Every structure is written in structure tokens, then in C-alpha cells.
Amino acid sequence: MSRDGRDRLAARGRALLARSRDVAAPSDDHPAFARVLDQLAPDEARLLWFLHTSGPEPTVDVHLGGLAGRLAPAVLARGLSLVGARAGVRRPERLPLHLTNLRRLGLVADTDEPVADLTRYQVVEAQPAVLTAARTARRAHVVRRRLELTPFGRAFVHACLGSSCDTVT
User: Fold this and answer.
1) Confidence of residue 66 (pLDDT cuts 50, 70, 90)
2) Which tens digits make up the pLDDT trace of 50-60?
3) What is the DSSP code string of 47-113?
4) Phi/psi of residue 86, each to 5°?
5) Beta bridge partners of 63
6) Torsion angles phi and psi, residue 79, rounded to 5
7) pLDDT tens for residues 97-156?
8) Cβ–Cβ contacts within 10 Å for residue 54, how many?
């Protein structure tokens, strides 16, 4: 980088720090929100709104091993859920792509904790994809997880989707 480029970056950094010290200034939305909007597909906005209004969604992984002393289980299937169907995405075959993009943008995350109501897993675990993966090996077992908005994702939905999504169907 040229000396001039470094000087411009340093000036921007100093201006940013000066704004951070101004406690009277109104708080702005995150500067990344506009760029994030440009990187979302319509079904991704639908998924975000659904997670915002419905809360964390149950997901399951199907593992082989990991029990009785085996340290690293093999994952037979990951992130199986009904979130696409429940959110009403228009292109369900693209759900894995959409979720990957939402994770990449820091809007959603998978956690190792289950959702509060464990009965919600019964429908997920009865899906053909889960049953098929669980039947592929004798020692396969289901691991309950959840998909949820990150704090950044919640702020993004509030700032960018807000009440405009009240009519999403």
C-alpha cells in the first residue's frame, strides 16, 4: 500500500475514534448493514424474519461414534431441520446455500444447546433425511442443536427488516 493510502486509512481511523468519544452523538446502525442487504437473497430475508418472530429452531446432526471413548465422531448428516418449510422459503432446494450465506454474514449461528421445548425435535427426528442417516450405521445417534439469530442478526433484522416484514406470508 502506498504512503498516501496508509495516510487516508489512518485519518479514517482517527475520525472513527473521535466519533466513538462523542457521547452526545446519536447511535447509528452498523455500517455493514447496507452491504449485508446487498448480499441477501429474498429467501434469506424470509429466514431471518422467521427466526426473529419464532425464535431458535431445532436442528439435528446424525453422528457415528463419539460414545464409549471415541473422541471424534463422524458426522453422517448435519443441520437437518424444518426451518425452510416452516419459514415458507420459495426455493427449498437452496436452503443449505442460504444458511451458509447467513452464517458467513454473521446473522445466524448453530449452537450446541437444544431449544427449550424438546418436543419440537420429535417432528424433525421423524423426517426421512434424519431416519435414513440414522439407519446407515448401527451406532448412529442424533445430536440435538439449534439455529438462532446472532446478536448482530437481531440488530440487523430490527434495523433493516423491522415492521416492513409484518405482512410476510
Assistant:
1) low
2) 999 999 999 99
3) HHHHHHHH--EEEEEEEE--STT--SPEEEEEEEESHHHHHT-S-GGGHHHHHHHHHHTTSEEEESS
4) -65, -35
5) 75, 141
6) 65, 35
7) 999 999 999 999 999 999 999 999 999 999 999 999 988 888 889 999 999 999 999 999
8) 11
Residue carrying C-alpha cell 434469506: 44
Q: What is the CATH number of domain 30-165?
A: 3.30.110.190
- Rounded (10°) angle between helices 95-104 and 42-54: 70
| Residues forming a β-bridge with 144 | 60
15-42: burial string, b at 16+ Cβ within 10 Å, e else: eeeeeeeeeeeeeeeeeeeeebeeebbe
Contact 121, 90 (CB under 8 A): no
